[in-house]
Design a protein that fits this description.
The protein is an alpha/beta fold. The chain folds into 2 domains: 116 residues, 3-Layer(aba) Sandwich (Rossmann fold), CATH 3.40.50; 120 residues, 3-Layer(aba) Sandwich (Rossmann fold), CATH 3.40.50. The chain has 9 helices and 10 strands. It is elongated and about 55 Å long.
């Protein structure tokens, strides 16, 4: 029998913590509760949970401070964190920028919470194709912190063979590669039935007036401008949520 996934609930309000615990246990998860930010950090370090739900508004060490420490910790930086709060857009924006996977406003939408946790515990695989090692590592780190598995490739000649073997859920492809350009690689992917259905996001740090996602057949999205790693990761997350039918994370006031 497979081991249950462990969720750490960091929440100072006992009623909400109990509600979360009961609800998540009914979903089949093992749940531990921490009643303060400091206790949450200690439990996260030794339990190494699969997912953390983190209240933002807590006395003492608040959720944003806890999130910073989690993302700075070697043993906790890759644990997906879901922020839970009555707070508004400022806290949401800051939390997502610091590496939280999603933001949920109170009262909780448990249907969306269930879907998000399911997507994180059934980790999707992203193939990232980028020849510059530093950029590749930055993208890998960001996607892993969001709960994805990552296959990093720097050689365009290997994309099709690896995609055929590993069958990733999405391919994130740098258009400008030294050996082969994006057109050739995408043609290989889309003309073979084993890989034709894999969504592809193409990116480039340069703008090409004659290049658009419409002109690259089979591409789900083309990012042809200067962008941050966070923006790139959000495009991946949005595309996969759309593919799976998981509701988006735009809990705004």
């Amino acid at each position: 029998m497979p081991q249950k996934k462990l969720i750490l609930v960091i929440e100072d309000e006992e009623v909400i913590a109990s509600m979360l615990k009961d609800n998540l246990e009914q979903m089949g998860y093992e749940v531990m509760v921490a009643g303060s930010g400091m206790e949450g950090l200690r439990r996260a370090e030794y339990l190494k949970p699969d997912i953390i739900t983190l209240d933002v508004m807590m006395p003492g060490l608040d959720g944003i401070q806890v999130l910073k420490k989690l993302k700075d910790g070697e043993d906790t930086k890759n644990i997906p964190v879901l922020l839970v709060s009555v707070a508004g857009d400022t806290e949401r924006t800051e939390g997502l920028k610091l590496g939280a996977v999603d933001f949920f406003k109170k009262p909780l939408d448990f249907q969306r919470l269930h879907a998000r946790i399911k997507s994180l515990t059934n980790k999707e695989t992203i193939m990232v194709v980028e020849n510059e090692e530093e950029i590749l590592k930055l993208i890998e780190h960001k996607l892993v912190s969001m709960g994805y598995k990552v296959i990093g490739i720097s050689d365009g000649d290997k994309v099709f063979s690896v995609a055929k073997e590993k069958k990733p859920d999405m391919i994130l492809l740098d258009y400008l590669l030294p050996k082969r350009d994006g057109f050739e690689i995408i043609e290989d992917i889309k003309k073979h039935k084993e890989t034709a259905d894999i969504p592809v996001i193409v990116f480039s740090g340069y703008i090409y007036e004659d290049l658009s996602e419409k002109k690259i057949i089979g591409v789900n999205k083309f990012l042809g401008k200067q962008f941050s790693v966070e923006e790139l990761a959000k495009e991946v997350d949005d595309a996969l949520r759309e593919k799976s039918g998981t509701p988006g994370g735009d809990d705004k006031e």
